[in-house]
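Agenda item 2: zinc ion complex prediction
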Amino acid sequence: MKTFQCNCKDKLILFFESSHCLSCGRAVGIDDNFDQVEPYEFDESTGFYYKKAYPKVHYQKCDNNAKYQVCNGMVNINTHALVEEDDDDAEVLCFACRFNVTVPNLNIKEHIPLWRKMETAKRRALYTLKVLPVPLRNTTQDADNGLSFDFITDRDVNDHFTSQLPYHETVFTGHDCGHITINLAEADDVARSQTQLAMGENYRTLLGHFRHELGHYYFDQLITPSPSKHELCKQYFGDDALDYQAALKHHYENGAPANWEQTFISSYATMHPFEDWAETWAHYMHIIDTLETAKNFEFNAAISDAEKDENDTEKLCLPQGRQYFSSQTSITEILEEWMKLSVILNSLNRSMGLPDAYPFVLTDAVRKKLGFIHHAIHNHLDSLADLEDNS
Ligand SMILES: [Zn+2]
Ligand SMILES: [Zn+2]
Ligand SMILES: [Zn+2]
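Presented output:
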């Protein structure tokens, strides 16, 4: 994730989540291009916002931004009006909020700060995807293959989601044909930590949930439609024809097999090839997002100075950090940078008395799976097949 900068005299740093500039006080947000967090001027006479350089283009805060401050989305009224022309009741929603089908029950005011955490994680997950050459469309744009979200719960926010709410069906976090459900309980630190301890996991975050479930979605988008890619995928992740319910039952009764760390990124990944793919996909996203963040702060200058290729910038011609989203950067380069950075990250955390930021080991087997995902995203699986044939 890059950081951004206000154009006021203090040139203050703006973060992806910023909603106003701490120096000039102007509203800050991101428009439907979902690329740039920037300041907006407010025109009292029209009641609309505009960017200083384009005073004639009118923006309005996303309804979820204006009413609940759960996003920092700004909506271009000129283009948005064309879409929602005849519907007076239609909400004005930003790029990220248009993926939502169900938001938490807002009659319960305690849900709002938790929903905000959900949206923050969701927007970050979407931002990384937006830069990659993968489809990212909501169900209005693509009824058959679009992506959508439900943020719901079957439990009571007032006791950290311990008691079951009456007349509520059980809510499972998961993915079903492009529709992702995340239980609001996962946004509650107490509830999530309890689950994490009960499951013996060393990492459980909202962002991780989003990236994992999105992994399932992209399996359907990138792999399933092509029999040849699907066959190749099975060589890396195993045969996904394996009965899912039986695998689930086996996993919860017996746990992960011995020495699973040699071939899987997490214990949960051992459950079924679909879960192995989703877990590995989530790690790929964590890795490239974090590398971009580090590069943004020139944090890795110390890491890679010794072996910096003078032609790197020429070769890629990409803004700081963007090379990790490019097909021209090999998975080997990405993982080499990541190994150095993750050691620094973990050491920084230990200095603060915190658990390791990245408590995982990337064995050769896991690296190969990450490589497969890298090639799947950049649609280079053919070259991977060639490599395999020649090796
Ligand atoms: Zn400012
Ligand atoms: Zn929004
Ligand atoms: Zn899963």
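Discussion summary: The two ends are 36 Å apart (CA to CA).
Owner for follow-up: CH.
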